[in-house]
Amino acid sequence: MNPTLREPELMEIMPYDSRPLRVGDVAFFLPPKAYQPIVHRIIRVTPAGISTLGDNNTQEDIFLLQPKDIKGQVVAVWRGQKRREIAGGLQGRWRSRRLHWRRILVNGVSHLLRPLYYALSSCGLIARLLPAPFRPRVVVFQTQGRDQFRLLLGQHIIGRYDDQKRQWHIRRPFRLLVDERALQMQQDEYRTGLFCLIGDSEP
Questions:
Q1: Is 130 exposed, middle or buried (0-12, 13-18, 19+ CB in 10 A)?
Q2: Contact at 8 Å (CB) between 22 and 89?
Q3: Alpha-carbon separation of residue 194 from 58, 161, 186, 190 (angstroms)
Q4: Distance of CA 149 to CAs 32, 54, 163, 170, 185, Å?
Q5: Residues 14 and 91 in one domain
Q6: Number of domains in the chain
Q7: In this structure, are 85 and 164 located in the same domain?
Q8: pLDDT score, position 196
Q9: Which tens digit of pLDDT belongs to each residue from 5-21?
Q10: CA distance 20 to 11
Q11: 87 and 15 assigned to the same domain
């Protein structure tokens, strides 16, 4: 459901009770024959069932829901003390359409610009030209006794290190601002105890 819902936000869910299910609502539901709940937007309500689609997906879900499967509507999300409302109904439908067309546009443009983007990011030129206060920084959080490397720009997480694949996952277009060789050096220095950037809890 990115960008409508973003990790690690907490969802505020309101039961439907007697309220009608509306196309455009972001619903919290348990699909048939599944054990994990899902949060997707309602795109169609028919006598046969309810169709859903994630805002970041291109194809609607393969199952049809019944009203009993839907546990509630996501009406807002919380990040710390900040509450952000989640549009439903007609407003939610318009938001979903905007996200759909934006995704098509971004995918088309990014396909054309991808070679240039990766060439610039791999050489690290832009990252080296940035003044130090504007450069992303590596922060280490300790979770269940394990080091979790995150890349922060201001207060926003723009990248995560995958220990299993041993590589950084950095959101576009922020890879342009990062010198990956410097990132690796910072990780190595941290592991050898030459520097330490520890966060108490992940933002």
A1: middle
A2: yes
A3: 46, 19, 9, 6
A4: 37, 28, 9, 12, 13
A5: yes
A6: 2
A7: no
A8: 47
A9: 887 889 999 999 989 99
A10: 20
A11: yes
Residue 203 has pLDDT above 60, yes or no: no
Q: What span, in angstroms and rounded, lies between the C-alpha atoms of 43 and 27?
A: 10
Whole-number pLDDT of residue 51: 96
In eight-state DSSP terms, residue 65 is: B
Single-letter residue type at 140: V
DSSP single-letter state for residue 4: T
Helix (H, G, I), strand (E, B) or coil at 69: helix
Nearest-angstrom CA–CA distance, 123 and 147: 28
Q: Sort 90 into a burial class: Cβ within 10 Å, 0-12 / 13-18 / 19+.
A: exposed
Q: Letter for the amino acid at 56?
A: N
* Phi, psi values for residue 125, rounded to 5°: -65, -50
pLDDT of 119-135, one tens digit each?
Answer: 777 777 777 787 877 88
Q: Which of 97, 114, 137 is the last residue of a domain?
A: 97
Query: Residue 96 and residue 58: Cα distance in Å, rounded?
Result: 11
Q: Are 9 and 77 in contact (CB under 8 A)?
A: yes
Q: Is residue 47 part of a domain?
A: yes
